[in-house]
Amino acid sequence: QVQLVExxxxxxxxxxxxxxxxxxxxxxxxxxxxxWYRQVPGKERELVAKISSGANSNYADFVxxxxxxxxxxxxxxxxxxxxxxxxxxxxxxxxxxxxxxGNGDFWGQGMQVTVSS
Length: 117
Known about the structure:
Elements: E1 3-7, E2 10-13, E3 18-23, E4 32-39, E5 46-51, E6 57-59, E7 67-72, E8 77-82, E9 91-99, E10 105-108, E11 111-116
Parallel strand pairs: 1-10, 2-11
Antiparallel strand pairs: 1-3, 3-8, 4-5, 4-9, 5-6, 7-8, 9-10, 9-11
């Protein structure tokens, strides 16, 4: 299985910012919906944001107004700009590439984001 390459996680103080990056599978990036998910221990993985190949985006209610998803098709890369971070944003963040042809899914390795009070 193809694993997407993520970067940008780490430790940040409440109110701070981080930008996550994910390099997707180049061969199918243009026909894929890209997304960011997060997971905490004992809970299911949940959608944070996703963006279509036409740059239409959707966000979970708990990040609207704080996070911005974007993509650079030339670089086969999706980004998540996270501002005004809160301790409850602490989680492992995963990048997802969902192909609209064949409905296949690729995932990143997961990155720890920790927001301290």
